[in-house]
Amino acid sequence: MAQLRDLKDELDIVIPTIRNLDFLEMWRPFFQPYHLIIVQDGDPSNTIGVPEGFDYELYNRNDVNRILGPKASCISFKDSACRCFGFLVSKKKYIFTIDDDCFVAKEPSGKEINALEQHIRNLLTPSTPLFFNTLYDPFANGSDFVRGYPFSLREGLPTAISHGLWLNIPDYDALTQLVKPRERNTRYVDAVMTIPKGTLFPMCGMNLAFDRELIGPAMYFGLMGDGQPIGRYDDMWAGWCAKVICDHLLLGVKTGLPYIWHSKASNPFVNLKKEYKGIYWQEDIIPFFQSIALREECTSVHDCYIELANKVKERLGPIDPYFEKLGDAMVTWIEAWNELNPPPPAQTATVAHPNVAMKN
């Protein structure tokens, strides 16, 4: 395995929060070299405390409204989906996003896990979505392609998304939380695998990294939270959209290592109120994504996402008016992305972010 290059100038860490970020103290040895983009949810008059010594930008709702103007309507409020604003304003190639109730996990040997390092390893090595390797990731240390694996496919495809897992509190829906209130994930599986082409997965945003240049415009966490009929489906929505586009554009998605320690179980009754329409709707949403065939003319993430937005309105809109609104928000998101991230030939100046709290 080639030595991983230093990505401190190529990667931003995006954190959505409503509270002081004391959890960063545990992550200091791993995060301090990197730039943080903190998206403050809720009341913008509240002061968010950030430990000394971190290089960060802090955005609140007032900043979102100021920077995006009318397009700010596509950014969710009072929901962790607000994190995608950080994806929008970043200018780095890679993004790692983590929730503020996630801490450093340990390997069975007791060694602390550098989650960021493993995500970087996942993103910098190819994926194999076209043919499954039974030793999981053939590019991991101590692994290779097994007998019978086609040599023509061994070069692999670029990795767009690295999906990490969690020890302690599992990422369960409200119904599973209610029937298994004391269940904890104690299994550490030392494996990374590529999710096969044509297979969807429930993406969790609490321990996630992606190549912003390859898939960034598709990592929109939807309209959730305040004023919306659904919550807690934001990351999964982004995952379904992104996976369909990755499959179309021949990009890879990895899942498995790294683990983080998820410290706090949210209230299952509150979660059920947010999720119940999603639990009902997902029985139509999943077949919709499974049946999507994007046109060959869609050769960029932007083109794919606009076509997907139109299909959402056309095929999911009859289920509930919310999906019409969501489809429109997806288009607004792409317009905002293009405005803040113009193509290189048109990139004559950096975008100014007035009145944003910055710290070095």
TrEMBL record:
The keyword Hydrolase does not apply. The record marks R147, R154 as: Required for activity. It is found in: Golgi apparatus. Its main location: Golgi. One of its GO terms (cellular component) is plant-type cell wall. The keyword Disulfide bond does not apply. It catalyses: UDP-beta-L-arabinofuranose = UDP-beta-L-arabinopyranose. Glycans are attached at R147. GO terms for biological process: cell wall organization; plant-type cell wall organization or biogenesis; UDP-L-arabinose metabolic process. One of its GO terms (molecular function) is UDP-arabinopyranose mutase activity. It holds the Pfam family RGP. InterPro entries: Nucleotide-diphossugar_trans (IPR029044), RGP (IPR004901), RGP_fam (IPR037595). Its EC number is 5.4.99.30. Keywords: Cell wall biogenesis/degradation, Glycoprotein, Golgi apparatus, Isomerase. Belongs to the RGP family. Probable UDP-L-arabinose mutase involved in the biosynthesis of cell wall non-cellulosic polysaccharides. This is UDP-arabinopyranose mutase. It comes from Prunus dulcis (Almond).
